[in-house]
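Supplementary notes for students who missed Thursday's class. We covered one full example, reproduced here. Read the sequence, then the structure, then the short commentary at the end.
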Amino acid sequence: MSTLAYEIVDVFTDRPFAGNPLAVVFGAEALAGDQMQALAREFNLSETVFVLPPSDIQATYRARIFTPESELPFAGHPSVGAAVTSVRRGLAAAGKVIQECGAGLLPIVVSETGSATLTGGTPTLGEPLDPAVLLDVTGLAGDDYAGLTATPSRAGCGLEFVFLPVERRALDRAWADPARSAAAGVDQIDVFAWDPGTRTAYARVFCPGLAVPEDPATGSAALGLGVWLVANGWLPPDGTADYTVHQGLEMHRPSVLTCTVTARSGVATTATVAGHVVPIAKGEITVPPFIG
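Structure (token representation):
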């Protein structure tokens, strides 16, 4: 019976058993998508990434990313985790690597010390959304809203999230009800409290539409947050601004995501997210049968 090598790593943390756990699988180029999905369901983490040979000559490797229920074109912590783990295993050299994925060719700079900086895909911004609907989805009240003149909306850099600014006190009570989320058409939502003095967000990210009730560290959401912050005037309209995201505190998996967003005339043009990766476990897993 054939097996595949895998590692479990914690992403966006510098210590074990914090951050966002990730399964990184190697040698799966002969597997079909349904077999990869079966493995992701077996690991049962928020995401599993398969590191594959690239199909584009400019890429270092190709990544396919799965939640327990579906494949994603892109996600942040699998991208950072795959890059750092590949370098540590000698499959690529430290420095700039190029990840091929559903969001295109994305540059990732990997350090010798187990951290990486990911540049997201093309920034996107959705139409304004009704705060009252989103507060209802997350079980919060009107006085929990902290948007002032800002407007909730979708934003992303390869994978979009809904962004809802709330008071810090409301984070403990936030929860995305799956039925209400489905009725409102909200697959994934980032509920965050913003500290303008330190340019720090305290966030919870819920993905009821992806079979991930809550994610402890979400690089793709951190990238999209920068796009939203610029669009709503909470970060400068021109130049490059730093910001930090703290996530996973309520899940007892504290995570730190260090970010930048570059803007021109009030529109984000690019965003980055960086963090550490800590190896936790490694082994072999059986290849599931093909389901054709």
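Commentary. The helical segments are 33-43, 76-88, 131-137, 178-184, 219-231. The radius of gyration is 18 Å. If anything here is unclear, bring it to office hours.
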